[in-house]
Amino acid sequence: MSTPVRRIGILTGGGDAPGLNAVIRAVVKSAFNAGIECVGLEDSFDGLIYPERSRPLTPRDVTGILRLGGTILGTTNRGNPFAYPLDTADGPVDYSDRCVENFHKLGLDALVVIGGDGTLAIAYELQKRGVPMVGVPKTIDNDIVETTMTFGFDTAVSFATEAIDRLHSTAEAHHRVMVVEVMGRYAGWIALHSGMAGGADVVLIPELPYHLDRVSEHIRARERWGARFSIVVAAEGAHPAGGGRVLQTAGTPDRMERLGGIGEQIARALEPLTGKECRHVVLGHLQRGGTPTSYDRVLATRFGSYAVELLQAGHFGVMTALHSPNVVAVPIASVVGRTRNVPPDSDIVRTAKHVGICFGD
Ligand code: F6P
Predict the structure, then answer these.
(1) Which residue of 155, 288, 341 sits with most ligand 1 atoms within 8 Å of its CB, as the best mutation to test the pocket?
(2) What pTM was estimated for this model as a whole?
(3) Which of these, 183, 178, 195, 182, lies nearest to 267 by C-alpha position?
(4) Is the separation of the CB atoms in 39 and 109 below 8 Å?
(5) Ligand 1, closest atom to CA 260?
(6) Do 312 and 109 meet the contact criterion of CB atoms below 8 Å apart?
């Protein structure tokens, strides 16, 4: 029987996703109602490296945050305590022992870590050093394995769908091709879902490398039957068959590579191939900002509250997950280092193809 959990730390790591505050609120309220104290750790693991960057969280502190985007605790994707990037000539420093020490100094019994694959992997390594944790998966990309959905995804898809709806009318008025670049890193979930919801004509995803001549033929065929405009949704990680992804910046030891630019590249290349005016729009961080949808608020609340249940049961080293319709716990070890991609033979891809969406594959 493990010692009862009386005081927990909460942190948010990696890129933000709408619904983070809803998780924090659910953890704080559920913990309070179970007699557990909460401490908010600021800017991911920085709050353990620098314990002065932590503060008590009570229901009063989380009132009104359910509908807010971002995270009241702040976040960073440059704060790996095992290789902390200090701007010194000596390079990254290992602060993991310091985190374990400060975890105890703060009187914490366990952590709720809300983050993507990278953040959860770090927390799991800390657990091996005696810091019990429960993870809550977060990403707009929806690419974490062992859960059918992450909060933030629905908000990103809703925003992208609205953008595609708006682009339809201007594309139609000017008889243009509009190429919309959406986020998603190495997975095509946002492109696929927003493309289907928005009635896109072409959807390009990393899982199905495309041939531009097939895309342009699809656009020309539409022209022949009288549709004089087309909407192309391109995932930022999409790439041609035999070609590479388009990067804004290459990765470094403490930063992942930044994808971006495929939309512009496709629009330029399609002009001569289709004989049509082609424009591109990059939705970028607009997909991540703003208020979460009701779906994301509910999923985030369920994850946060279940994380507290797991802590109370002494069930550590697990991540909350949606196995629809239930929220369950899955071992973190089965999640880290893996990515959940769109299966090319899935019913959703088949459906998209049946209704005439071209993937250029
Ligand atoms: O993982 C979420 C995400 O928004 C990706 O879709 C995107 O590639 C990346 O983060 C952008 O990261 P940053 O905000 O660090 O540029």
Answers:
(1) 288
(2) 0.97
(3) 178
(4) no
(5) 8
(6) no
Q: 205's torsion region: left (phi>0), alpha (psi -120 to 50) or beta?
A: beta
Q: Which of 75, 140, 192, 286 to mutate to test the pocket of ligand 1 (most atoms within 8 A of CB)?
A: 140
The half-sphere exposure of 239 on its side-chain side, counting CA atoms within 13 A, is: 15
Pick out the chain residues at pLDDT < 50: none
Q: From atom 13 of ligand 1, which residue's Cα is the shortest distance away?
A: 15
Which residue matches tokens 């009701």? Answer: 294
Yes or no: is domain 155-289+343-354 CATH 3.90.25.10? no
Of 46, 109, 141, 154, the active-site residue reads: 141
- The conformation of residue 210, written as its DSSP 8-state character, comes to B
Domain boundaries of the chain, sorted by first residue = 7-151+292-324, 155-289+343-354
Residue 78, pLDDT score: 87
| Other beta carbons less than 10 A from residue 209's beta carbon | 16
**pLDDT value, residue 86:** 81
Q: Which two tokens stand for residue 207?
A: 């899982």
- 236 CA: nearest ligand 1 atom: 8
- Name the pairing type of β-strands 133-137 and 177-182: unpaired
- What is the CB neighbour count within 10 angstroms for residue 229? 22
- Position 85 scores a pLDDT of 85
**pLDDT at position 349:** 98
Q: What is the CATH number of domain 7-151+292-324?
A: 3.40.50.450
Angle at 163 between CA 157 and CA 169, to 5 degrees: 140
Rounded to the nearest whole angstrom, what is the distance from the C-alpha of residue 296 to the centroid of ligand 1?
A: 18
User: What pLDDT does residue 1 have?
Assistant: 54
Nearest CA to ligand 1 atom 14: 15
Q: Which residues, other chains included, contact 275 with Cβ-Cβ below 8 Å and sequence gap of 6+?
A: none
- The residue type found at 229 is F
Asked if the domains at 7-151+292-324 and 155-289+343-354 fall in one CATH topology, the answer is yes
> What lines the ligand 1 site, CB under 6 Å?
15, 77, 139-141, 183-185, 236, 258-259, 288
Q: Are 152 and 18 in contact (CB under 8 A)?
A: yes
Active-site residue flag, 61: no
Is residue 106 within 8 Å of residue 83, measured between CB atoms? no
